[in-house]
Amino acid sequence: MRSGDRYHVMTTVSAGTLHSDLRPRAYLTAIATVLACALIQLALPPGFTAPAAFLLFVPAVLISAAVGGLAPGLFATVLASGTVWLLKVRGVPDQATALSSLVFVMIGGGMSIGGGWFHAARARAAAMTHHLQSILDSAPDAVIVIDPAGVMTSFSPAAERLFGWTAAEAIGQNVSVLMPEPDRGHHDGFLANYSRTREKRIIGTGRVVVGRRKNGSTFPMELAVGETLGARPFYTGFIRDLTERQHTEARLRDLQTELVHVSRLTAMGEMASTLAHELNQPLSAIANLLTGSRRLIERGRSEDQAKVRDAVDKASAQALRAGDVIHRMREFVRRGASERAPESLSKVVEDAAALALIGVREHQVSTRLQLDPKADDVYADRVQIQQVLVNLIRNAIDAMADSPRRELGISSQRLDNGSVQVSVTDTGSGIGDDFRERLFQPFMTTKAEGMGVGLSISRSIIEAHGGRIWADPNPKGGTVFHFILPPRRDDAETGEATDE
What we know:
Structural class: alpha+beta
Radius of gyration: 44 Å
Number of domains: 4
């Protein structure tokens, strides 16, 4: 059944119920009032003529029409006319009496029609009230109506469940009982200020505030307020509990952090063999240098001391090289929540490039960094941005595996709004327009062995920083990935203050 049909049925049922309840009482009222007027007429002196007697029964018709509407009003009119004729006329009426009778019938009919209109309007109003009340009773969000003084005049069942107050307890109280301090003490002042200045702060919009239950506990809620204009305005508040939503968002953030961490571990797993080869070189060099130094020392010749010192220095440098690789690995795969702070973009890019380019000498990739010093200050989580860069750089290297020209470019520039744009360019085979639109969706990949989650996670990281990431075709062939990072926090705050 459509909503309009339901409303029509509800209106008809409500009106019919109202009429059926009133009709017997209205006819009894008509009989009683006409009988009362007849008794009054009998008590009057004989000189009270028939034309005047009709006027005596006008209140009876009026009361009957007001109580029962059209039919009881007409019934009272006919009954009153018959009573007057029975008591006063008793034969052939004169001209004045006949005219008075006709006028009385016309007046009675008019009052009856007016009573019918009144009852029809009252039935429609009752049906509308019932309809609105049913909406309030079934609304999933709490609905509260207050008057200009802040006193609650309506309190929906959802509001009862949310705040712990019953409607009987809440109606008549100031709505500030549903607020913690300091909002409780300031609310009446806000209403008075709005009544005086008509300056809207929350009316017509929604915002997140804190509510207070009957037991004193507080909870986050989303509040939207609407105003009903009229001789006396009323304000309707629509309230949604955000407790579960905040718990869900917190859980999603935890899952996102876990997914980012797993992604880094996966990336390290894919690079494990390359890292083993990279670490094997300095470790082998250290072992060879130390073995040679031991032999020189065992020979005991003074002229070999310089060679020993040189070998030890070289071994130390190789150990530092291996330690640096391990340090980058540990930082890259470390687990933790987002820790944004002012960072040097050049340092972040250099560390990420050093990690991503491990073991790619055989690929013969030419790498070029073009980092604008004016775009060096960013506000970001260093490890997460390094993850994005490592993913983009490794993807670029894979894309150029079969390309005759292998040029990797990493550049940065400062935008007009103070944000920083980072670009990673390759000269690979490129990406088709149709696929580029779906590139950042989960499980979308051009690699035969890839899982297709790296770019999706990269997008989540960049969007969590307040930026965006996208891909464009490289005019020289290949693809250019761009992403935007916010500036340092002090720069961002200065920009916000300027806008205000």
